[in-house]
Design goal:
alpha/beta; Rossmann fold; 4-stranded antiparallel β-sheet; 10 helices; 26% strand
């Protein structure tokens, strides 16, 4: 479904990605691991068009997308759930959700809103409430719901558990599992390597902008380097 081929990208003179290649097959949940500053978030931003690559190409469903702008990539079926949730704090829950469906103007959104509220009953209770007044966990639900409103084939998650209380972290990973069970393909950046690998099919380890390791989630869970660097040793 997604093929990243020799991608390079950066910010001004600072190069963040050095010839990165990875694949995500339809129906998979793939995690991207690495330390802060390894280039993980940049990789997702390149895929979603927020950062333009300087070399390489990205193929999605057989078509190149690395030359498209972010709206064009959303229309192709890729949604990005960003780090820090990034809800519109002064808009209501429902207004945030409707913004997620901007690329489907003219479509009947009532059924989709009902589905989101069915998945996240707390959002239904607070549909008229300003998004900025929600808890961190509730904002994460809203960010995921907003991404789902575009009906993506591929959903990019950037640090979905960051800054959340333990119970909210557990709820977030249950939601991501449910997203995958709906048939949506997932590429996820996550600092909680143990939880990510236990949820994923495969994983990549990014170090200083390069793929250092790749394999099944099970193999990476038992890899000595991964255990020492990202799983606390043992």
């Amino acid at each position: 479904m997604l093929s990243v081929e020799g991608v390079e990208a950066g910010y001004g003179r600072v190069q963040a990605l050095h010839g990165v290649s990875l694949t995500v097959n339809r129906g998979e949940l793939v995690c991207l691991l690495g330390a802060n500053g390894a280039g993980k978030s940049t990789m997702l931003k390149v895929i979603s068009g927020l950062v333009r690559s300087t070399a390489g190409r990205i193929i999605f469903d057989g078509e190149p997308i690395h030359t498209l702008d972010p709206p064009g990539i959303v229309r192709r079926g890729i949604a990005h759930c960003p780090e820090g949730r990034r809800v519109f704090p002064d808009l209501s829950v429902e207004e945030n959700l409707r913004i997620g469906a901007w690329s489907r103007r003219g479509a009947r959104l009532g059924a989709d809103l009902d589905a989101i509220y069915g998945h996240f009953p707390i959002l239904a209770e607070r549909r008229g409430q300003a998004a900025g007044t929600l808890s961190g966990g509730e904002q994460q639900m809203l960010a995921i719901g907003r991404a789902l409103m575009s009906r993506p084939a591929l959903l990019l998650f950037d640090e979905p558990s960051l800054g959340l209380a333990p119970m909210a972290v557990e709820a977030t990973f249950r939601i991501i599992r449910g997203v995958r069970e709906q048939g949506i393909t997932v590429l996820m950046v996550e600092q909680n390597a143990d939880a990510a690998l236990r949820l994923a099919d495969r994983g990549y380890v990014l170090e200083t902008g390069r793929i250092a390791l790749a394999g099944t989630a099970r193999d990476l869970l038992h890899d000595d380097h991964v255990r020492q660097a990202y799983l606390g040793g043992g």
